Batch of 4 targets.
Target 1
Amino acid sequence: MQRIISWNVASVRSRMPVLEKFLKEYQPDIVFLQEIKATEENFPFVDFKGLGYDAVISGQKAYNGVAFLSKFPLTDVIRELPNGPKSDPTQARFIQATLPDGKIIICVYAPNGAPPMNNPTDTSRLDYKLLWFNALTNHIQNLLQSGRQIILGGDFNVIERDTDVYNAKSFDGSALIVPLVRQAFERLNQTGLKNMIRQFNPTEKTYSFWDFQMGAWPRNLGILLDFFFVSPDLEGSVENAVIYREVRGWQKTSDHAPIGLQIKLN
């Protein structure tokens, strides 16, 4: 069985003790990381190598950034979303690679889309988010049409359903929940990808994120933001999709819990 993890770590260097603990205890084969906030120059490649993982990253100084940790060689690495929207500076939110068995893995950190605090009427970030989701959906459609097996995971920054948040009304008007964003996420779902987190965790109050503020973790004021999708031909091989909720309770951890796939190997 192959264990694949996705985790928004909110700064890879700040979370190294927690990451090391998690990797040793859970022994994943592949890890998707989001919000690494690091570039090639300061990413801890050597530390991960000592834990048995090679790493490839799409980094950005102080913001965003995604990466793979893998016990297997990764090839055909793509570090920018094909035909994605442009920004200055370039936002590191996408990385893709191919596993030795031919599966394509894609790690994403979707834009938040919230306006700048000093200009609450500015919609440019929301516009960027919608364009980004459109480009991701088009890319997935192209891969599916080519017959490739796909595993897509990450932090999608969408509250898809009112039951995915502790209080939907408190997020009225938020870029996580506005109809245009939900519609963009629905178009991604309509490509034929199978949402494994949703499938294996069908109950309400299934969360993957608890803010550092408001005592959100002890009060269970959570949001479901993190997902794993697979192409239809992989659905039958997925034995479980889990949210490692207990990790959110660790000291000095991220505000996101890791999520995981367990895939039966042929």
Target 2
Amino acid sequence: MSNAMTRRPRVVSLLAAALAIGVLAGCATQPRSGDYYRRGEALREQTVRMAVVESVRDVTLDREGHGVGALTGAAIGGVAGGAIGQGRGSDIGTIGGAVLGGVIGQAIEGSTARVPALEITVRLADGKLTAIVQEAGAVRPRPGDTVRLLSGRGATRVVPA
């Protein structure tokens, strides 16, 4: 069997694996709105404070990627580049494809890491103002709404009263 014939199934398998990693990584990013809890946040006591919404402003939240896009892009680019040519040409294609794929993957991850969010300024019962930024959820508070501030483990979220 020729080298090209044995190489093709390997290339297809590696490409499929890299693509699967990329898809799973895209699913790993979860929303952080007031409507969403992670498993570790369940069954934990939180401090509740009542407040009145003073203002709501649309902002953009950068979730800060974890480099998965760059790694996935590099893997896919390296596999695709390695399929070009034979011997040294294949090695050069692998390196070039990995670099180009990593750059493209990082750019894609960066653009998907930015999500709509809200900066919610509230007045507490003692008259103090505080602001919380969270991803936009199903419910958008309006000035004058009474809300609950749920705080625990260093995070605070705004939810309807």
Target 3
Amino acid sequence: MRILGIDPGYAILGYGIIDVTGNRFSAVDYGSIMTDASMDMTSRLQSIYANLTNLINTYKPDEASIEELFFNNNAKTAILVGEARGVALLACANGGLPIGEYTPLQIKQSLVGYGRADKKQVQFMVKTMLNLAQVPKPDDTADALAAAICHAHSKGKKDFLKGITG
């Protein structure tokens, strides 16, 4: 199975594409979609949508995983990130991808076993689980790969439970 993980943002949107075979994970591609602060918000959203659509068409993931918004004290920032997240959801839906949505707590729990793990612990697990030479940068990229791994773990549990319950 191929999973596209997304860490939403309007300045930097992290993405990570992994292949899952049994309990093995391998990184296919990862990086970030960056938009320039000089662009108006509509242009930034168009760029995010076009780039994600291109990734979906190029790598043909089977499913997508996106991090839910963490509450931000700055309402304006939260709204703008929410708009970028909506565009990411639309790109995945238009690409025909089933979408898993996970809170930061769920992602940390899935990778580290502790929902209050710090960013460095999550990044270390991403590097280790994907057998990468170094932690992916920027942080948004590592977070997107973590979301993809979380989805694979969640999917594995659901498939396992389906198998034992009929």
Target 4
Amino acid sequence: MSAQVVIRCYAYNHERYIKDALDGFVSQKTTFPFVAVVIDDHSSDKTAQIIREYENKYPDIIKGVYLQENHYQKGLSKDKYLEPFEKEAKYVAFCEGDDYWSDPTKLQRQWDALESDPTLSICVHKVRRVSKDKEDLGASFPNKNRFDKETRFTLDFLIQEEFLLGRWTFQTSSFFVRSHIPARKAELCKTIFKNYPYGDLPILLTSLIEGDGCYIPKDMSCYRVLSGGYMSAMRSNLDMALLHGQKKIEAAKDLKEFFKGRFDKEFNVHIKRVRYKSYNDIAKHRSKHYWLDPKYLYSRIGWLFLRIYGRLNAKVKREMRVNLTPCCEIDN
């Protein structure tokens, strides 16, 4: 029987971390067949060697793809390597090579949630933040236990959270979507997502354009902070951070045009917040006494104003789910 769930995993120089990701995949206990397609983006360390070892040990689960050039640096899509595996799948899950799954029931719980309700396009869950060495940092996505029960959420709610309030709500290692979502996202990457500097939010937005989302309040994966990935690199590279900010602004303008005024308030606030972040980054790279820099003071005052404005204007609420199947209930 063909795999019903395909896990997308991208790895690049993740020698220190990839075993945790692979162990999380092979430990999953499900009633359906699944595979993990692990794409090594031409790593210069032993990442590919480790993937091959797991592929030999778990040939029915781990499917390695070993690229001969770095596709990320050249802006090349990796979708064509995933299409043969996803052709007959019902769902697609995601996990970067430096993050990992911590619960062997993760896939089954998310499968059951989407199987129970055809109006849902995506299921996510709580994700813990950990250090490079897997130490719990006491934080999570979503932050501060803001969701304590199974929750249904909409496109309006996500745009409010991400763009009006500036919250990073859900993390990629929790994404579980219907199999047509990646192809639909690829189509939208030609228009509204063509300027997006990363791929997780476009997956969420695409899913919620197509249907609603479901959140399970159980931490079942871990996001590794400062592991040397894209977000980590921006903290030390001003030019990269400024380019990232400009791309986010252009992406917000594309989204404004696509939604034809529906979320103009949210996107306008987001654009201002990104500009304040750029002023903040410039000040911090200029001097160790950055708090005396007028750009820094301006950015902090502006950021505070936007935070107050966002909270005063936040109106969209999430809805508590009442129709999850019993097997999706969270154990105490």
